[in-house]
Amino acid sequence: MWLIVNYGAGAIYWVALSWLLALMFVAKVGFESIWLGEIDMTFVVTDVCIRCKYTDCVEVCPVDCFYEGENMLVISPDECIDCGVCEPECPIDAILPDTDSAADKWVEFNQKYSEEWPNITEAKPAMPEAEEMKDVKNKLEDHFSAEPGEGD
Predict the structure, then answer these.
(1) 16 and 64 inside one domain
(2) pLDDT tens sequence across 4-60
(3) What's the pLDDT tens digit per position in 107-147?
(4) What is 75-102 written as a DSSP string?
(5) Are 75 and 16 found together in one domain?
(6) What residues make up the domain containing 18?
């Protein structure tokens, strides 16, 4: 009753919504992970980026956690703050949250190459073949290069 009198009926809505969102989060990651401090969320770049290398995502990243290979980008899982601003910027949907089941194998991949490749913090033109390569399958096996890019 005090909540309604002092803040209006809308306050109950926001309190209920925040509890619901908190419960959904706990259900998704598990209570033990939260209790033990094991939540280590990140976004990852998948093989969809190979031979496209759009850098729209790099420009919006607040912590500069992108690294450049010869023909793709990766995100450093240690540096990513899970803000999610990069994901909608990618025109080919190459960025996924690590909570997505399709991202499982990409966390280690991104970690490995973010330690070997140079940091990139400014947008560059996409690769010339980006448009024709965006829907190609098996890019990791057929088109991936482990060579580093230029960085900034």
Answers:
(1) no
(2) 555 666 656 666 656 655 555 545 545 444 455 555 678 999 999 999 999 999 999
(3) 999 999 999 999 999 999 999 999 999 999 999 999 999 99
(4) E-TTT-----SSGGG-TT--EEETTSGG
(5) no
(6) 2-35
Burial class of 64 by CB neighbour count within 10 A (0 to 12, 13 to 18, 19+): middle
* Amino acid in the structure at residue 146: A
Q: What's the domain count of the chain? A: 2
For the CA atoms of 134, 137, 141, 144, the dihedral, rounded to the nearest 10 degrees, stands at 0
> Do residues 14 and 72 both lie within one domain?
no
pTM of the model: 0.74
Q: Can you read off the two tokens belonging to residue 62?
A: 């607040």
